[in-house]
Amino acid sequence: MEFIVDQMLGRLTTWLRLLGHDTVSASDFALESKEDEFLIQFAGHKRILVTRDKILGSMAERAGVRVCLINSDSIMEQLEEMSSNYDIDLEPKMTRCTICNALTRKIRSNELGMLKKEDYIPEDLVEDGIDFWICDSCGKVYWEGSHWDNIHERIEKLRERVASKVSLTKNF
Ligand SMILES: [Zn+2]
């Protein structure tokens, strides 16, 4: 399942990538005008268009594009809305770059020296022997830092909400 997300939903783009979904954002392109036409054309039959814009949504549907219309302002509720329509993988992972959507790869031990030269990575972290991932496309390096616990916690709560909704639907 692949998505294209409108410019208003930047955080949702990041979270979808964090959950491993191939997600293109309108912000990835320098669009001066006609964003709507571009998004519809780019989505085609391949990508699901995720938007809060009802007019764009109905235009896209008329053009045969699958549309996921978002109502909420809250990022976790947005993911919940998507989960009720699509099989969103609610498991954070390091497989995709949250900045540029390219696939990442695990850094090999013989490359760790290179990390020490990157001044934004604390040297003691590199020496700790934890795992790092790199996006070869934009150079961003990832590791499971303290923010990672927070991500897991939020997704865990979301999973519980989604699961309780599913069991409610089954009961009625
Ligand atoms: Zn990247």
Would you mind describing this structure in some detail?
With 172 residues, this protein is an alpha/beta fold. The chain folds into two domains: 2-94, Rossmann fold; 105-142, no CATH class. It is built from seven helices and seven strands. The strands form two sheets. A four-stranded parallel sheet has the order 2-1-3-4, with helices on both faces. Strands 5-6-7 form a three-stranded antiparallel sheet, with no helix packed on it. Helix 4 packs across helix 7 (147-171). Bound molecules: zinc ion (ZN).
Number of domains: 2
Sketch the topology as an H/E string, one letter per element.
EHEHEHEHEHHEEH
Class per helix and strand makeup: alpha/beta
Share of helix, binned: 40-55%
* CATH architecture descriptor text of the largest domain: 3-Layer(aba) Sandwich
Strand content: 5-15%
CATH class label of the largest domain: Alpha Beta
- Morphology: globular
Continuous helix count:
7
Mean pLDDT: 90
Largest sheet: 4 strands, parallel
Distance between the termini: 29 Å
Low-confidence runs (pLDDT<50, min 5 residues)? none
Main β-sheet, spatial strand arrangement? 2-1-3-4
Question: Would you give the CATH topology of the largest domain?
Answer: Rossmann fold
List the helices and strands and how they pair.
Blueprint: E1 2-5, H1 10-18, E2 22-25, H2 35-43, E3 47-51, H3 54-62, E4 67-69, H4 75-85, E5 105-106, H5 112-117, H6 123-127, E6 133-134, E7 141-142, H7 147-171
Parallel strand pairs: 1-2, 1-3, 3-4
Antiparallel strand pairs: 5-6, 6-7
Helix pairs in contact: 4-7
The structure holds zinc ion.
